[in-house]
Amino acid sequence: MSYILLMNDNNILGVVLAGGQSKRFGLDKSQVSLNGKILINYILSEIHEEFSEILIVANNEIDHMNSKKISKIKDFKKDLGPLGGVLTAMKWIKQFNKNFQWISTFPADTPFFKKKFLQDFLNKIEFNGSKLFFIKSNNTRHNIFGLWSLKLLDQLEEDLINKGERKVETWANSIGVKIINLDFKNFDPFFNINTKEDLEIANKILNKND
User: Fold this and answer.
1) Which of 85, 140, 158, 193 has its CA 20 to 30 A from that of 170?
2) What is the model's pTM?
């Protein structure tokens, strides 16, 4: 199925996972300003036109771009990590009887991501091949940039709540994740900001490209 047909079917919910504690940074990364724009708005501005609806999973009261497309909820249960955010989004779909069959997840701390990479990712997917897909760029696997089938909900809830699995990579490997490779010759645009030093690097990259 082509990217255009897939998005026209409106069966993918865009989900930004912003519920992390940002311990290494020292404050909520999603609200950090980079070149006059808060981090979460970098990803939102790229994916906003790609989805009929976007859900932000965040446990703090955060600012973000204003849009009727965007809803915001807290984790249904705290301290479950990114898998908890994924499960929260799936439960939201079921609770409100949404028609989405997949969720496409994004972090809130990757300011150089572009919508073209989402298009390239989805165009390379054979949807009958797996219930879970992750992006890999320049030999680095990105476990938060993923496409998750709603058919995983029950298994995820069982493993997360009853078995205590917290690691995205471990759980994904046990499910049978398919990896989609995207290669970049120079700078890897999946650079994410974990520390204040990373923020300084991002500022330098932006200033260099201005």
Assistant:
1) 193
2) 0.93
